[in-house]
Amino acid sequence: MSHAISIPRSSARITRARPVTRVAAIAAFALLTAIGAKIALPLPFTPVPITLQTLFVLLAGVVLGGRDGAASQIAYVAMGTAGLPVFAGPGAGLPYLLGPTGGFLLAFPVAAWIAGSGIPPRAGAWRAATVLALATLVVLAAGAIWLARVLGVGIEQAIALGVLPFLPGGALKVAAATAIALSIRR
Fold this sequence. Notes:
mainly alpha
C-alpha cells in the first residue's frame, strides 16, 4: 500500500479526503508559499521583492479548493507572525506583517479562496484565467493600499512601487496556474 501523496484530478477529492490528508495538504501549501517567499528578487526602487509566493497562493486555491486554500495561507501568515522566518525578507513576527509588504500577505487567504471557489470543475481557460487574474489583482490592490499607508505616499506612487513592476510576473503566474488548473480540474 502506497502512502505517496499525489495531486488529485479534482480539488473535490482533497476536500472529501480524510482529515489528516487535508491537514497535510494545507500544511504543504503553507510550506510551498514559504519556499516561494525565499525565491526572491529584490528591486532597488521598492521595498516589495519579486517572489514566487503568489504562484503558490493561486495553486493552493486551485488544488485544495477555496476553503482549504485559504486555510493554507492563513497558516502561512500565522507561521510568519509567530516568528518563523517564512516571509521574503529578513525578520518575522508582527512587526514584519505591519511593514510594507503586510497588505500583500494579508490578502493571500482571500486570493486563495477566490482561486479555489471561482473556477468550476469544467471551466474553460478564459474563466480560469479571469478568476486567477482577479485573485492576483486582489493581492496587488491590498498591497498597494497598505504600502501607501505604511510609506505615507499617495496611491499613485504606491501603485508605481507595488503593482506596476509585478504585472508581467503576475501574468506569467496566472498563465501557469491556469494551465495547472485546467489539467487537474478535468
